[in-house]
Amino acid sequence: MGQSKPTLALVGATGVVGLSLLSLLPTRDDVWGEIRPIASDRSVGRRMSILGHDCLVQQLSVKAFEGADVVVMAVPADVAEMWTPVAVAAGAVVIDNSGRFVADPDVPLVVPEINPDAARHHPAGIVASPSGATLMMVGSLASLHATWQLTSVVATTFQAVTDAGIAGAVRLYAETMELAGNDGVGQSPGDVRRMLSDLGDSPFPAPVAYNVIPWVGEPAVDGATTSELAVRDELRSLLRVPDLPVAVTCVQVPVVRTHSVSLHATFAADIQRDDAVRVLTESSNSVVVLDGSNDTPDDEWPMPVDVVGADPVFAGRVRQLEGFPRSIELFICADNLRKGSALNALQVAELVI
């Protein structure tokens, strides 16, 4: 590959986010020279075809960062915490997708459609990409906020199992296969748990097949989870409203790919549904509005089965309920492995160079 162009190193290249990022490269501008896949020991030596070139997966090590201009960390937070300083010391700018450095005041949180200039100032050598739950809703909220000024947000997310990586998808498939063909399962208390008792460790705190789990992340404060607080803090940062009231409930659902969210957004001034649809449609926010009549059950809605594999965020069921003249309801879907992770990180990397 041409060495006159910058080198992009991808840590976690064989994971679900890493593979999604590599699949996006042919759709982007030709700005990179070497694309260097880096992964854990079990993937070292694997060959990957990247933009028509045969590439060897390198072991995560100090040497792997030599000559890299930008490093994308598509890995869990503990791995990012250990290796990000190493990459920065080697002279690279790190795009962190793990959420580990979001609270650091020297690490800008960037969504290219909202605050692209923030990517230019990174005193710690790190730029953070928000969580997938935040990324699917912040574009719509930012567009509406610019016109009517948000005063509060209530959100319930419905998060796909690949939020937990490949292990999440494997677990859902295993549970579904174990339960399939058993007539009556799921109709008695405890029967699903009993049937799944021999499947071993799970990345989820409860059965995910035939179920929804009102818990994503680790315990935090006031009964919230780390995922819920991350959405609150990231929205406040990106919208530049540090005290914005944000109430979030994160729910794990048996969907392989694509997060969804039900939003209740309240503003400082009265807002009309049709005006909200117009602003969402006309803004440069990567949002595609599916604006049906809301009167019949056969309109186009944003749904994971239709949105999976797509780059934009899809918003629909835009409503204004009686008694809420300053509030708008909407339902949003976005592929958590594309715009929810890989695409935003890649866009930020392009901004950095």
Automatic annotation (TrEMBL):
Q: Which residues form the Semialdehyde dehydrogenase NAD-binding domain?
A: 7-122
Gene3D superfamilies (alphabetical): Dihydrodipicolinate Reductase, domain 2, NAD(P)-binding Rossmann-like Domain
Domain of life of the native organism: Bacteria
GO terms for biological process, alphabetical? amino acid biosynthetic process
Molecular function terms, GO-annotated: NAD binding; oxidoreductase activity, acting on the aldehyde or oxo group of donors, NAD or NADP as acceptor; protein dimerization activity
The family this protein is said to belong to = Belongs to the aspartate-semialdehyde dehydrogenase family.
User: What name appears for this protein in its UniProt entry?
Assistant: Aspartate semialdehyde dehydrogenase
Naturally occurring in which organism (per UniProt): Rudaeicoccus suwonensis
